[in-house]
Amino acid sequence: xxxxxxxGWVIVVLGAVAMVGTFPGRxxxxxxxxxxxxxxxxxxxLDFAWINTVASLIGASFCLPFGWITxxxxxxxxxxxxxxxxxxxxxxxxxxxxxxxxxxxxxTLQRGFGQSALSAASVTAVxxxxxxxxxxxxGLFAFLVGILFAAAFGVVGKVLETKGWRxxxxxxxxxxxxxxxxxxxxxxxxxxxAGVVAPGALPPAETGLxxxxxxxxxxxxxxxxxxxxxxxxxxxLFQEAIFAERGFSAKVYHDILSxxxxxxxxxxxxxxxxxxxxxxxxxxxxxxxxYAGALxxxxxxxxxxxxxxxxxxxxxxxxxxxxxxxxxxxxxxGQGSLxxxxxxxxxxxxxxxxxxxxxxxxxxxxxxSYGPAMLGLAPVxxxxxxxxxxxxFPGVAx
Length: 398
What we know:
Blueprint: H1 2-20, H2 27-41, H3 45-60, H4 63-73, H5 75-94, H6 100-129, H7 135-163, H8 165-187, H9 209-213, H10 216-237, H11 239-245, H12 250-274, H13 280-297, H14 304-333, H15 338-367, H16 371-390
Helix pairs in contact: 1-6, 1-7, 1-8, 3-6, 3-15, 4-5, 4-6, 4-15, 5-6, 5-8, 6-14, 6-15, 7-8, 7-12, 7-14, 10-14, 10-15, 10-16, 11-12, 12-14, 13-14, 13-16, 15-16
């Protein structure tokens, strides 16, 4: 058991590597090459917006079958396949010369394999190895993911500036398929039957997907993540325009991005520590309260100080909810159907993320401001915070 517990920390690192392998399917990853791709392939901007939305919604459906595959065939097979498939679709995209349908198919596959299925499988790997009292491991996992993503954005961005999107995306595809997939094949292991259980702790009772879906806790935690992603995807995509609406320059926007990123990383590590003393429900509630406060503040900010306060609340909220989302599922529902349960939650989150920008931009066009979208979402976020504070679920470590 001791050696298995030690190897559980290796799984945390491998899970973080797998999560970063979702880069080609992530909104922010695709956003890096969007302008270059549109210009190179002569794609209409509105057409690409629809491609992205449809691809995200269809790609979300990959979660459920790959959740079943994870539970049925194991972590090594699933993660190796998904890393290889994600890298391969990125490589094929590089060789495209245009066309609405081929681009739609490839972006859908990138979204499905990467953003949806691989993301869920990477978290499932850590959850299966650490079914109880794993908040510290999940905090480290989230921290590593943040650092690795920051490095990936820096490297890919530099290649984009000097060589263009095709060499950059070729490098991404090679890193994911030729480095990431072999790492999963060689070093990923299946979790011991009882997982890596902390001394004196009992693993949660095994729960099937249908039973999990009947619990309030599933919908409160999945809903919290979904509403957060809906708001943050819309706010994140149009954040520069939102700040400009309030009279702030692009430089302020870039400065705040770096600070909120650092605050998010700090909050992830702190959440791992606080979760040893507070329940995941209370931590999730704080995340929702912070985010609701930011959504209520931003439409009215008039000074740099208040903008920094609102942005800091966003950064702290994002860091906390990341750890909670990673840690909750295995502790609440056990390992037996974790792949399917985690994937069902991921499906909800991906769909919400895809709808966020459409909601923000639609309301902006109607009202002439992004404020109504934020003010409309804030009460919903707040309600999920209250529900998180009140929810009782015996499987969640306190």
